[in-house]
Amino acid sequence: MAVLALACSNGAVERTPYDAGGPRCPVVVEQHPDEGASHIPCTSPATYLTEPPSSGNHYPTWPDYKVYDQPIRWGHLVHAMEHGGVVIVYNCPDGCADDLARAQAFVAAGPSDSSCSPPRVILAPDPTLDVKWAAAAWQWTLRADCFDDQAVQSFVIDHLGHASESICGGYPLDQLCTTQ
User: Fold this and answer.
1) Can you spell out the DSSP letters for 145-170?
2) Is 76 within the bounds of a domain?
3) Does residue 161 lie in a domain region?
C-alpha cells in the first residue's frame, strides 16, 4: 500500500493510504504545543486543548501498557505518554470489529520498544472521542475514521519513547490514583 503525504499550512501532515480499492480513510497527524506536565490530584478535572490529549497536567499514576476493554481516564493516559508511551483509542458506537481486531493484533505483536518490555503502547475505548480512531504521544496526535495499520505503525515508530521521561511499566487499574 502506498501512502500519499501532504504537508498542511498549519503544520499538520495528512496521510491518505491508497491501495487497489482506493483510499481507505484520511489520516491526520499533528504536532501540538506542550501543555505542561505537573501532577494534579485525582479529584481534579484534567482538561486538555487537543482531542485526543497530547500533553498536559495529569494524575500521579499511569496504567500498565496493554489492551483494555474499558475507558481509562485521560489524566492517567497523559502520564503514560509523558513516560514515552503511545495511546491508541477508539470510539465505534456502531461497531468496528475488524478494525478493533487489527488494532489488538498490532498491540499484541509488540511494536519495537528498545527500552521497555512490554512496549509502552495502550489500546482502550474512549466514548468521548469525536473520531473513530486516534493515537496520541507526547505533543503529537493521529486522527482517523478507520484503523490504518500502516499509519499507526509509522506513528508508533516515530513517537514511542520520545518524551521528557523514559519509564517502563505502570499500575494495574485498581491501583490508579491510590499510589502517590
Assistant:
1) SS--HHHHHHHHHHHTT-SS------
2) yes
3) yes
Strand pairing category for 121-125 and 86-90: parallel
pTM of the model: 0.87
* CATH number (domain holding residue 148): 3.40.30
- Give yes or no for a contact between 106 and 144, defined as CB atoms under 8 angstroms apart: no
Residues spanned by the domain of 81:
32-175
Copy the grid coordinates of residue 170. 505502570
DSSP code for 38 = -
Residue 16 contacts by C-beta under 8 Å, 6 or more apart in sequence? Answer: 3, 4, 6, 23, 25, 26, 27
What are the 10-residue block averages of pLDDT along the chain, 180 residues in total? 41 47 76 96 93 97 96 97 97 94 94 88 97 98 95 96 90 80
